[in-house]
Amino acid sequence: IVPIRPGLVREGAPTEAVLLGFVDLTPQRRVEQMRVDFIANASHELRTPLASLSGFIETLQGPARNDANARERFLKIMGEQARRMSRLIDDLLSLSRIELNAHLRPEAEVDLVSVISHVRDALGPLGRERGVEISFDHPAPPVNVRGDRDELIRVFENLVENALKYGGSGGRIEIGIAREGADAVVAVRDYGPGIAPEHVPRLTERFYRVDTAHSREQGGTGLGLAIVKHIVARHRGRLGIESVPGAGSTFSVRLASAAADDKKK
Ligand code: ADP
Predict the structure, then answer these.
(1) Ligand 1 centre from 191 Cα, in Å?
(2) What is the DSSP string of 95-106?
(3) In what residue span(s) does the Histidine kinase domain sit (predicted)?
(4) pLDDT tens digits for 176-225?
(5) Entry pTM
(6) Can you tell me whether residue 253 is helix, strand or coil?
(7) ipTM higher than threshold 0.95
């Protein structure tokens, strides 16, 4: 209850009023809910391989104690589960580091042709293993943008690896760089099964997968595209996803060229 200034009140009118203020808590609640969901998801993802490891340890201490064959097999699976936990922790740490620095734009001059050549060399063996050819079409180098070379390598490694993991059945992956006005656009295209439209807007959510079992089988953590989205946003770029079920998917990243960026300053 607050007093009303005497000059503002007519004779005989009340001299006190109740002031009510409203604060919209919806955005805070939403952020809080997202944080709670994220921790629940991360714990669940870590608990799954941990439960499997505990199960195998018990079996090796008990029923399979003297079975050399089973021991060999179980240790191999346990190694895979441990690697999965470590990948998940690496991805969680990367994501929080990128989010922490979200407001800092990386400034080094980076040549996209060299970034993609690096990614293609790194993933070529996996492609050959799966019978997939990775082609790369680009204008004369350099195609310079302002950014962080390692983070940009991470973006395109994720996209090409996904094309191999989920679109590899198409037999080829095409990577292209095009100059569009003041921008450089990198597109990663596969000819796999594609993605149904209802999933497309949710792919960059943490832990969102179209087929969780298939993702796990492929060694996925469900965090790859969330990391891609955050790195691209930090570079003030745009991530595009186009997919036609049955025909394949194209993931593209649009970045301002270094020259155009410098002119704006
Ligand atoms: P994951 O670790 O599961 O690969 P991502 O965040 O990288 O996580 O991708 C999320 C989901 O998006 C994948 O689980 C998969 O279902 C789908 N996806 C990503 N790239 C492709 C693609 N090129 N073709 C079909 N589905 C894809």
Answers:
(1) 14
(2) HHHHHHTTTSPP
(3) 41-259
(4) 999 999 999 999 999 999 999 999 999 999 999 999 888 888 889 999 99
(5) 0.86
(6) strand
(7) yes
